[in-house]
C-alpha cells in the first residue's frame, strides 16, 4: 500500500494552540495498514516520525523536518461484559468528547467527569487524562498498540501502561515506540456519581439537582469547563499547561503555614496535590501577557495564543511563570504538553 504523503504541510490547523509550524511531510492514516506503510516510507528515507493525535497537547517551537503521522482509526463498539462492567472499545482517532457522549447515550456511564477534554482517544492513555476526581486509569481495561520499531501488534493492560499522574509508559524510553490503535474501557454497571469537586457540587446545586444522573454530571462538567476554560476554536490553547504539583505532608504544612489560603487536595498516599492555577495566580500572572502569549484571565493554568504568538513565545511565558512560582513558593511546576523543538523547557 502506498501511503498518502503530503509535503510541506501547515501544522497550525492540526493543533489547538495554533502556533505557526510546518511539517516536511504529513500522513493522515485511517487504518493500521496505512500506519505501517507510512512508517516504512519514512524508514526508507531515514526520516524521523512524530505521532500526532488531536493536537491538543503539543507545542511546536520549530518546524518538523520528518514525517508527522496522524492515526485516525475509527470505530466504537461493545466488545464484552462481565457481571460488573461493560467493555467498550474505541478507535484511537475518535474524538474524545464524542466517545464520552456516545457511551452515555448507549447507557454505559463512567466517563462523564472527563467530558469536553479536547483531543483524540488514542492520546488519552498517553497522558492518563483526568478531571474532577477521575483519571483514565480508573476506567481503563486495555489497549492495542503497534510497535513502530519491531512492527509487532501488542496488547497492554493497566499494569503494563504504568499509569501515573499525567504519566504512562508511553512517555518513557520503553514505551515511546508504541502507537496506540484502540482503547478498551471498563465501564461500571453499578454507577455512582463523582461529585467531590466543589465546582461540580456548586453547579449541580445551581441546577437544583440533589440526586444527579450520569447525564447531569456530564452537563455540569461541560458548563464548568466552558465557563472557566477558553474554547480552542476561539483562543488557541492546550488546556492546563502545568501539572498540579504533588508534595509531601511536611512540605504542605510548611507552605500552608506561610500561605493559609493555599488550595490543595489530600492524596491517598498522604501527600497533597497543590492547585497550580492558584500558585500562578498568587505569583501575579493571571490574565497577564508576555509578548504575544497570555495567561487566561479566568484560569491561570491555561496559557493562550490570542493571535500571533509563536511556540517560542508560549515557552518564554511558561518559563517566566515557573521561575516566579519557584521563587515565591519553592515549588517546581512541570509542563503538561509535549514540546517539539529546540526550546523544550521540560
From TrEMBL:
MF-aspect GO terms: UDP-N-acetylmuramate dehydrogenase activity
Pfam families: FAD_binding_4, MurB_C
Active site (record annotation): 166, 240, 336
Record domain FAD-binding PCMH-type: where: 19-190
Catalytic activity from the UniProt record: UDP-N-acetyl-alpha-D-muramate + NADP(+) = UDP-N-acetyl-3-O-(1-carboxyvinyl)-alpha-D-glucosamine + NADPH + H(+)
Record's keyword terms, sorted: Cell cycle, Cell division, Cell shape, Cell wall biogenesis/degradation, Cytoplasm, FAD, Flavoprotein, NADP, Oxidoreductase, Peptidoglycan synthesis
Reported cofactor(s): FAD
Pathway as given in its UniProt record: Cell wall biogenesis; peptidoglycan biosynthesis
EC number: 1.3.1.98
Subcellular location: Cytoplasm
Principal place of residence: cytoplasm
Record's keyword annotation contains Kinase: no
HAMAP family: MurB (MF_00037)
Function description: Cell wall formation.
Name under which the protein is recorded: UDP-N-acetylenolpyruvoylglucosamine reductase
Taxonomic path: Bacteria, Pseudomonadati, Pseudomonadota, Betaproteobacteria, Rhodocyclales
